C-alpha cells in the first residue's frame, strides 16, 4: 500500500479522465483563460466537487519539488496603495518575495511582476491568485513562470 506522502510519476494517457480534466481546469485558471473555477469546470465538463476533491492531489511533474520559484504578472489600475495591498496579500500567504518590478502606467494600467518562493506558503498558489484578484484595482493576475 502506498504511503500518503509518496508520489508517482504516471503518464497522463493512462490516468482516469477526472485527473486530466482537473489539470485542464488548473491550466485554464493559471493562463487567465477562465476567470473562475466555475467557468473553468464548465468548459472542461467537470463538476466543481470533483475539481476540489482532487485539485491538491494532482499536479504537473514540475510542481512537485519544494522551494519553487513563481513569477506572477498582475495588471493593476494606477492609484496609490495598490502595490502595498498586493504585497500584504502575499505576506499573509507567507510567500517570500524575491523581486518586484512595476512598469510605467499606460492608459491608467501598469503591469507588476512579482517573483517569489512558495515553499513556506500557508495556502496554495491558486488561492493566492484568487485573493490578489479580489483586491480593488487588480484587473488580472496570473502565473507568468514557474521553476
Describe this structure in words.
The chain has helices spanning 17-30, 37-44, 48-54, 82-92, 125-133; strands spanning 69-77, 96-102, 109-117, 138-146. The two termini are 31 Å apart. A 4-stranded antiparallel β-sheet has the order 2-3-1-4, covered by helices on one side. With 147 residues, it is an alpha+beta fold. Helix content is 33%, strand content 23%. It is built from 5 helices and 4 strands. It folds into 2 domains: 12-59, no CATH class; 69-146, Alpha-Beta Plaits, CATH 3.30.70.260. Helix 1 packs across helix 2 (37-44).
Q: Main attributes?
A:
alpha+beta; four-stranded antiparallel beta sheet; Alpha-Beta Plaits
Strand order of the largest sheet: 2-3-1-4
Helix-strand topology string: HHHEHEEHE
- Which spans have pLDDT < 50 for at least 5 consecutive residues? none
Note the overall shape: globular
Return the domain count.
Answer: 2
Number of helices: 5
- What integer is the average pLDDT? 87
| Secondary structure: number of strands | 4
The CATH architecture of the largest domain can be named as 2-Layer Sandwich
In terms of quaternary structure, the protein is: single chain
* CATH class category name of the largest domain: Alpha Beta
Helix content range of the residues, please? 25-40%
Distance between the termini: 31 Å
| Largest sheet descriptor | 4 strands, antiparallel
Q: Do you know the CATH topology of the largest domain?
A: Alpha-Beta Plaits
Beta-strand content: 15-25%
Radius of gyration: 17 Å
The computed structural class is: alpha+beta
